[in-house]
């Protein structure tokens, strides 16, 4: 799957431009930025959040793709300091939301409780991101007029949106996602406009 097309798909699904997407395409750099300070517990939590978003079925889920590790790399290497801060604060916020809703941490919650919590956060994120987008619009228009749209750095999205974006990005660029969930041919063959499709076939990775 082409990376730019994947980013467009993720943006459509999550309702916001993929944070760090352009930096990801051009090659992330760590120079001049502090490490966000991920712990093993943070990564384990992110794996479980990812697994709730893309659970294992007849194919492996996000946890098998080690999306937590990918999130650590992306946040450290491709996020601005403000985006890093928002993401890391989100780790505490999701635990607080879980305890408020279920009287237990996210890790202690049942799969259904985790799912229900993320549904609530999805709506919360949609409203939050709309406010952020409206606030950014004048500055975005200014960069567009200058012909410099890729130099515009948006305000951080809701932490759940960032986690969902990175879950999708990590999963669908992983070996697990590319070869076990999508169909993969290492070397593309000839174009066949009449290639047979059977109901239930997996989408192609490329």
Describe the structure.
59% of the residues lie in helices and 0% in strands. α3 (40-53) packs across α4. The protein is mainly alpha-helical and 206 residues long. Residues 182-193 have low confidence and may be disordered. It has one domain (3-179). The chain has helices at residues 3-14, 21-26, 40-53, 67-78, 81-102, 111-145, 159-172, 175-181. The protein starts with a helix and ends in a 25-residue tail after the last helix.
- Helix count equals 8
What summary fits the major beta sheet? none
Calculate the mean pLDDT score and round it.
79
User: How much helix, percentage-wise, in residues?
Assistant: 55-70%
Number of structurally distinct domains: 1
Q: Give the assembly state of these chains.
A: single chain
Q: Care to count the β-strands?
A: 0
Class per helix and strand makeup: mainly alpha
Net shape: globular
Give the DSSP E fraction (strand runs of 2 or more residues): under 5%
Poorly predicted ranges: 182-193
Question: In angstroms, what separates the terminal alpha carbons?
Answer: 4 Å
